[in-house]
Amino acid sequence: MQLSGKTAIVTGSNSGIGLGVAEALAAAGASVVINSFTDRDEDHALAARLADEHGVPVRYIAADMSDGDDCRQLVAKAGRCDILVNNAGIQHVAAIEEFPVDKWNAILAINLSSAFHTTAAALPMMRAAGWGRVVNIASAHGLTASPYKSAYVAAKHGVVGLTKVTALETARDPITCNAICPGYVLTPLVESQIPDQMKKHGMDRETVIREVMLDRQPSGQFATVEQIGGTTVFLCSDAAEQITGTTISVDGGWTAL
Ligand code: NAD
After folding, report:
1. Which pLDDT score, from 0 to 100, does residue 1 have?
2. Which residues partner with 101 through β-bridges?
3. Ligand 1 in contact with 23 (CB < 6 A)?
4. What is the ipTM of this complex?
5. Is 184 noted as a catalytic residue in this protein?
6. What's the rounded mean pLDDT across residues 225-241?
């Protein structure tokens, strides 16, 4: 239980990668705050289930990561933040000329600006505690690009830049900040893209997965939420104390191409 005594906040963690990261941190002994904007009974039940399974305190705090004040309030309500995982994210696919401005603004707010706000609120707590870890969930799209994903690619490149600046501003503190860049992970976000891709390419589900998605991943396999969770726990471990301001790709070789 290497993270016992630490409190972790994971934004956007009632499904997909965020949930996998929250589970991995809880399994490593951390107290965890899970978050989404939905505030349903099932969100609170999810926190209770994780607490029960891992024997650590787990709370659900509702906050809308598209709203800067809500982001800062999330950290304030948690009361303590040793580990901050900026994970909340959304996606939209359209050509630049047709990209809806409201979608552009929402993607930049949720995928990028939220990390600025939560980090600003969490760093004073980490400095006061004398230890801190910021882990930003970026993407292979933070290092490379794809057509029709302008807002997502811009936001994720921004997350990688914010990661480096945060690392430099905390370099003399016992605080690190790194980004994980996953390739494709079969989460609800990716599942939601499959029907459009099937229509666009005139392919069945399996062919879209094989020829459109995993074609970019030399391993030919999806990464898993457990692997992203394990990488997060590693970045919080003593072995990673001198790792800061970098990106770790969990992408089956995508960015090596
Ligand atoms: P997901 O849709 O399963 O999860 C997204 C999470 O964000 C959910 O918990 C949702 O409730 C939350 N969320 C959305 N809008 C929010 C808001 N306004 N306020 C608070 N929470 C909000 O998606 P995922 O695939 O698990 O993605 C998680 C992160 O991983 C995102 O940042 C995404 O860009 C990144 N990522 C995913 C993949 C992939 O292949 N799945 C690859 C690279 C990076």
Report:
1. 65
2. none
3. no
4. 0.99
5. no
6. 98
Residue recorded with tokens 């709370």: 59
Ligand 1, from 17, 43, 118: best to mutate by most atoms within 8 Å of Cβ?
Answer: 17
Q: What are the tens digits of pLDDT across the range 85-112?
A: 999 999 999 999 999 999 999 999 999 9
Distance CA 140, CA 145 (A): 8
Instruction: Give yes or no for residue 212 CB within 6 A of ligand 1.
Output: no
Could you give the CA distance from residue 125 to residue 130 in angstroms, rounded to a whole number?
9
Residue 207 CA to residue 219 CA, distance in Å, equals: 16
User: Which atom of ligand 1 lies closest to the CA of 141?
Assistant: 43
**The model's pTM:** 0.98
Neighbouring residues of 109: CB distance < 8 A, sequence distance ≥ 6:
65, 66, 67, 68
Q: How far apart are CA 48 and CA 43, in angstroms?
A: 9
DSSP 149-183: -HHHHHHHHHHHHHHHHHHHHTTTTTEEEEEEEE-
Question: Quick one: tokens of 86?
Answer: 């900026």
